[in-house]
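Usage

Read records sequentially. Each one opens with the input sequence:
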Amino acid sequence: MKIKIPKNMYMSDQFDDYELITYAALKHFEPQTDYETGFMPVIVQTLIYSLYGDYDVSHAIKQNITTCIENLGAKGVITYEKCANGRYLIAMPEDDPTVYYAVIDFAHLGKIMRCPFDRKGKLFRFLCYMMGSRNNQQKVRDRTCVVGDRKLGYFTDELDWNYDTVRHYNKLLVDLNIIYIVHTYEYEDGVVRTVNVYGAYEDKELIDEYTHNEDGSLTAKFETGNHRRRVKAKKQALDANPEKYDIYETHKRNNQYNNLMEELDQKS
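and closes with the structure output:
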């Protein structure tokens, strides 16, 4: 089931990681909302089972979920009525067309909550950032929000994390078959940069279609980037060691590399 997480929640430090997880779990049960009252019945144990696949969790986790529900109410995100024995009646907010949402597969949250990694909340927030950064203008088979191509620097800046942490979280999501990444290169303003084209693992076929030709080679946009990378590397090696060849050969190779770069620029 797909759930929507508002950008103003996952990008805000006003909501801690487990409030974000609790909100996602509540969204999963939103279809049970009564059409007349606008409230849905929620049992804390049921939320826990949907996240962990088990009722046998620590008292601290149960208390944390309860606290998060009431915090979300206090912050005006949900409306709730507390009943007996860990039961609530909860009204979820309607979608706001002026707000941007990250669309997440709830099963992906389940994979995160059941993996051995300790910082599950941070990993889920990172997933929200990744899925929320997919391109809503780029179409793949008439679908938008399939692929994203943000640089690692975007995530380090937005989350105030270092590169090693972002790379580690990237790898965790790949290993859990939650996201799928194609590593490519692009040439921009004379600089070759790594581009990670990513999306949900279930969209693997669409991501490959976006980045590859039918014969399996990278599409022109990305193939050109790879070619530029190779040419630039050769030119840099030549510049770093000009005495490797005689003057005539050095001049000849330098002109060849410059001409290739100009040719590739015209293709872009």
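Summary fields computed downstream for this record:
- The longest strand covers residues 179-188.
- The CA atoms of residues 212 and 243 lie 40 Å apart.
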